[in-house]
Each structure stands twice: as structure tokens, then as C-alpha cells.
Write a structure and sequence with these properties.
Elements: H1 3-23, H2 25-34, H3 39-59, H4 69-93, H5 100-111, H6 127-155, H7 162-166, H8 178-202, H9 207-218, H10 236-248, H11 253-262, H12 271-295, H13 299-314, H14 329-341, H15 354-372, E1 381-382, E2 385-386, H16 389-415, H17 420-431, H18 453-467, H19 471-474
Antiparallel strand pairs: 1-2
Helix pairs in contact: 1-3, 1-4, 2-3, 2-6, 3-4, 4-5, 4-6, 5-6, 5-18, 6-9, 8-9, 8-10, 8-11, 10-13, 12-13, 15-16, 16-17, 16-18, 17-18
Length: 484
């Protein structure tokens, strides 16, 4: 790579830093409205970030170089690193007095829409900080969908959008129609957030709670303004509303965009939608029946809590209506394995994602057929689309790397003194961007405030790896990437 690419990447990162500096004015105004002194923290942070970003953008301003894959990989990593560091600044300067490890963890958890927190006493936390966490969620969700729809399919490391399936004219043209699709996406994202806010407010949340929870729900992030999360409100209608919006935002945003731009409902034929909704309903019903039989809970309550719990895990949102680890060992086991699964490609959800399971299953089935009929022609398909060997290889590479990272991270956590359940659960919940894990420390009734700084750094890395589809980060770490 040459200096022109480095300059362009730094310039784009500086411009994005200006946007984050402007976003800091929102929590500053919230603190002013509620009379909290932390408004000065956000004004100072905005001035520092805005000033540095302005100087950097001016110093690196030049014509954009031709976009290529190396620039794409580098840009994605640099942007997420800048977002994480800038997002951590208000946490460090606030009245919460976080050290760098905790502030960075909270910021990365917000930007990657993971939802794990190191903050205890959320009910009495500064309102500006609560708004900043939710706003980082919301902005991170926009970036995640943009990556999933436009960048990752081009880089061939993740994402399989409807746009890619309907047209083969994607080679070296990742942004051919980005302007129209981006406008439609942002409009849809804002409208869903407004609808979610109004529904939450109508069902009993305060305006402040409704705005924060709507941003966290649409981004499938899971940060709440209360330690008890959704359990604070003790409302079954709110659980069903949360379930609906979390599920909606776990579906490919490409479907909504195609419907708005072209009025096409045939996009609903995307196979990952049926698979995702299928196992969501199946797991929810199984847990509801178990909860009813095992704990004697009225079935309508068991159904509401089970659908909410399953949707919050599969969508990788990370809310909690109750401590579901107390429902029984079956639920704990199900919750642990659901943490791996995730939502759909092109959504704000994390995890392995449904489309990869479809390709893995069809690849294994085709492999078995080939053992029986070695001379036959066996094609791996995703719906009606033939999956080429490159995509199959990348899916298998992602899957194996994902499991290796989880195993390596879990071993590293046990070396730091944590038990197996806490280690395995905390690493996979970070890698899948789910939020809470299982167990008394990092489960839905706990948080990450007691986790040591070295372990927080490890989990922070895992959150970034998972959010950026693992391979996007690892490819930048290879020596071959930096050769001209």
C-alpha cells in the first residue's frame, strides 16, 4: 500500500471523528436539561475530538484514491478503532471515574452493539452517560448495517445481501447504488426508531427510558437505563413490543430497502429469514413449555418471557426480563448455545448468522451426496443461488476461526482465574456481541464490573473481532497484507 491510501483512510476517520464530536452535544444537552454537571464533560470531549479531527482532516485532505480491497480492510479497522477510542473519552472524564480499561470496554460494547456493561447503579447514573451509551449503540447499528450491506460482501468475508443475489454486477463496484440505498436505509432506521419510541412510551416507559431503549433495541444493543433491564418495568405488553422490534431488526435491512425502493415483496424469499424465524419460534415454545412445567409459571407469562429471552439472545440484543438462568438447566444450556447463533446478515444482529448455517448445512449435505455419487454434479445452493467455492471456503474459514477464537479466549480467561462457565460464556457473548452470558458473574443478573482489566482488554478485542466478522481484523494482522 502507498501513502495515498494511508492519507485517505486517516482523512475519512477524521471526518467521522467530527460526526462523533457533534453527537456528544446530545448528551451534553440532556445533562443540562436534568441539571447534571457532567454536561461539561461532553462539551470538553466534543471540543477536544472536534479540534483534533478538524486539524487532521485538513492536513490529510486530498483527492480520494481508487477504492480497493486493501483500503477497505484497513478503513474498516481504523474506523472502528477510532470510534471506540473517541467513545471512551466521556466515560473516562465523567463523574463515574472509569479507568481506561473499563471506559474502552463500555465504549466498544456500545459501538459494537454488544450491551455488556461495567457500570453498576444504572438507575442513578448520570443521564448524559446513559444517553451517550444508547447513542453509541444507535450510531454503531447504522455502521454495522452499512458494513453488512455494502462493504463486507465486496471484501468477501461476510454478508450476503439481497442486492448481491439479484445482480452479478458487483465486482469492483461496491458503491454503485450506495447513495439511493443509503438514503432509504437511514430513513427506515429512523422511522423504526421513532415507532419503537412511541410504542414503548405508550406502554408505560418514561420519555427518557423510551428514547434510550428504542435506540438500544433497534441497534440490537441492549443497554438499559436500569440495572434490572426490561424487568424493571414488569410489563408483559412491553416484553411483546420489545420482542417484535428486536426480531424485526434482526432481519436483513436489505429486505426493507428493496421494498421501499422497488416495492418488491419477493425479497422475503431470502432463505435466512425463514431459518431464523423458525428456530426463534421453536426455541421459544420449547422454553415456554419447560418453564411452565418446571416452575409452574402461568403459560401466558412463560410464553412472553420465553419469546423475549430467545429473541434478545438470538438478535444479540442482550436485554433481560428475568434471570433466566434460574429457570432450570435446560434453559441455561439453550441460552448458551443460542449465543453462538445470531440473526441475519445485513442486520444489526451479531453471532455466526443464519445464512452461514444454511451454507454449512448444504455444503455438508452435498459432500455426503458426492460420497455416494462421486461422478455426479452436486451444487451447493443458497435458495436458488449457486454458492461459489470462494464463498463456501470463506464460510468454513469463518466458522473454524470463530470456534478457535472462542476456545483460545476461554482458555485465556481460565488462566486469569475465572471458572470454566464464566470464561466460556463471557468470551462467546463478547464474540457474538450478545451482552450477558450465563452464570452468577456475567449472567443476566450480573455485569462485568468485577472482571479484571486484563480480562476486559481480552473481551474488548473479542467484541471487535466478532463485530467485524473476525476475518476482517485477522487479515490486517498478516504480513502479506502490508506488502505492496
Amino acid at each position: 500500500m502507498n501513502a495515498t491510501i494511508y492519507r485517505a483512510v486517516v482523512n475519512i476517520a477524521a471526518i467521522c471523528g467530527l460526526y462523533l464530536a457533534a453527537a456528544m452535544l446530545v448528551p451534553a444537552l440532556v445533562d443540562i436539561y436534568y441539571g447534571h454537571r457532567d454536561w461539561k464533560v461532553f462539551m470538553l470531549s466534543a471540543a477536544l475530538v472536534g479540534g483534533l479531527s478538524t486539524l487532521t482532516a485538513a492536513a490529510t485532505h486530498a483527492g480520494p484514491p481508487p477504492f480497493n480491497k486493501k483500503m477497505g480492510f484497513l478503513l474498516v479497522n481504523v474506523l472502528w478503532l477510532v470510534f471506540s477510542l473517541v467513545g471512551a473519552l466521556p466515560f473516562m472524564l465523567s463523574s463515574l471515574e472509569m479507568d481506561f480499561a473499563k471506559a474502552l470496554f463500555e465504549s466498544v460494547s456500545a459501538i459494537t452493539t454488544t450491551g455488556s456493561t461495567v457500570i453498576s447503579g444504572l438507575d442513578n447514573a448520570p443521564p448524559g452517560i446513559l444517553m451517550w451509551r444508547s447513542l453509541l449503540h444507535w450510531l454503531g447499528g447504522i455502521g454495522i448495517v452499512a458494513l453488512g450491506l455494502f462493504v463486507m460482501p465486496y471484501l468477501r468475508v461476510g454478508g450476503i445481501s439481497f442486492f448481491k443475489m439479484e445482480s452479478s454486477d458487483t465486482n469492483d463496484k461496491p458503491f454503485a447504488r450506495i447513495a439511493s440505498f443509503t438514503r432509504a436505509f437511514v430513513l427506515i432506521y429512523v422511522l423504526i426508531t421513532l415507532a419503537c419510541t412511541l410504542v414503548f412510551a405508550a406502554l408505560g416507559m418514561s420519555r427518557f427510558d423510551a428514547v434510550n431503549h428504542a435506540m438500544a433495541t433497534v441497534a440490537t444493543g441492549g443497554f438499559s437505563t436500569h440495572d434490572a433491564s426490561f424487568g424493571y418495568f414488569n410489563s408483559l405488553p412491553l416484553l411483546w413490543a420489545g420482542t417484535f422490534f428486536m426480531t424485526l431488526c434482526s432481519l436483513p435491512f436489505s429486505i426493507l430497502i428493496v421494498f421501499m425502493v422497488r416495492g418488491r415483496l419477493d425479497a422475503l424469499r431470502d432463505p435466512q429469514i425463514g431459518v431464523f424465524l423458525g428456530y426463534l419460534v421453536l426455541f421459544s415454545l420449547a422454553i415456554a413449555v419447560y418453564h411452565r412445567i418446571q416452575n409452574g409459571v402461568p403459560f401466558h407469562e412463560a410464553l412472553a418471557h420465553s419469546f423475549f429471552t430467545v429473541s434478545t439472545i438470538l438478535s444479540t440484543t442482550g436485554y433481560a426480563s428475568q434471570d433466566y438462568t434460574l429457570w432450570g438447566p435446560f434453559v441455561v444450556t439453550m441460552a448458551f448455545f443460542m449465543t453462538f447463533m445470531g440473526g441475519c446478515s445485513g442486520s444489526t444482529a451479531g453471532g455466526i448468522k443464519a445464512y452461514r448455517f444454511i451454507i454449512l448445512f448444504n455444503s455438508m449435505r452435498t459432500g455426503l451426496y458426492k460420497l455416494i455419487y462421486p461422478n455426479g454434479i452436486h451444487i451447493v445452493r443458497y435458495g436458488k443461488m449457486a454458492v461459489d467455492s470462494d464463498l463456501q471456503r470463506n464460510v468454513f474459514l469463518f466458522f473454524v476461526t470463530y470456534l478457535l477464537l472462542w476456545a483460545t479466549g476461554s482458555v485465556a480467561m481460565t488462566a486469569m482465574g475465572y471458572d470454566l462457565m464464566t470464561s466460556a460464556s463471557s468470551v462467546i457473548t463478547a464474540l457474538s456481541n450478545v451482552g450477558p452470558g450465563v452464570g452468577p458473574i456475567v449472567g443476566p443478573a450480573g455485569n462485568f464490573s468485577t472482571i479484571s482489566d486484563p480480562a476486559l482488554y481480552l473481551l474488548t478485542i473479542m467484541m471487535l473481532l466478532g463485530r467485524l466478522e473476525v476475518l476482517t481484523v485477522l487479515v490486517v494482522l498478516t504480513p502479506l497484507f502490508w506488502k505492496s
